[in-house]
Amino acid sequence: GAEPLLRTLAVYFDAGCVAAETARRLALSVRALTYRLERIHQLTGSDPADPMHRYSLQTAVIGARLLDWPAKEL
């Protein structure tokens, strides 16, 4: 589902987009984190590592948090 990927993005942004710190906070290997970030890129067409795409993804994460999504249906 969306929850693990949304959480990955939220933690990635909270960690200043530092992969090693994000992986540590999520208790993942850097390789597993990289796979998740690549999957997000495939699904959204936006690369979390690209500053131009990061703004859109961060805005989506903030919106999801404000709406308590996916815990609540929209």
Describe what you observe in this structure.
With 74 residues, this protein is an all-alpha fold. It has a single domain, classed as PucR C-terminal helix-turn-helix domain (Arc Repressor Mutant, subunit A, Orthogonal Bundle), CATH 1.10.10.2840. It has four helices and no strands. Helix 1 packs across helix 4 and helix 2 packs across helix 3. It is globular and about 30 Å long. The model has no long low-confidence stretch (mean pLDDT 93).
Short description:
With 74 residues, the chain is mainly α. Helices cover 72% and strands 0% of the residues.
Defining key terms:
single chain; 74 residues; mainly alpha; Arc Repressor Mutant, subunit A; 4 helices; 72% helix; 0% strand
Furnish the topology, listing elements before pairings.
Blueprint: H1 2-14, H2 19-26, H3 30-44, H4 51-67
> Which fold name corresponds to the CATH topology?
Arc Repressor Mutant, subunit A
Q: Which spans of ≥5 residues are poorly predicted at pLDDT below 50?
A: none
Give the tally of β-strands: 0
State the share of residues found in helices, binned by percent: over 70%
Distance between the termini: 15 Å
The fourth-level CATH homologous superfamily is PucR C-terminal helix-turn-helix domain
Number of helices: 4
In CATH, the architecture is: Orthogonal Bundle
Rg calc: 12 Å
Whole-number count of domains: 1
Order of helices and strands: HHHH
Outline: globular
What is the average per-residue confidence, as pLDDT, rounded to a whole number?
93
CATH class: Mainly Alpha
How would you describe the oligomerization state of the chains in this entry? single chain
Class computed from helices, strands and strand pairing: mainly alpha
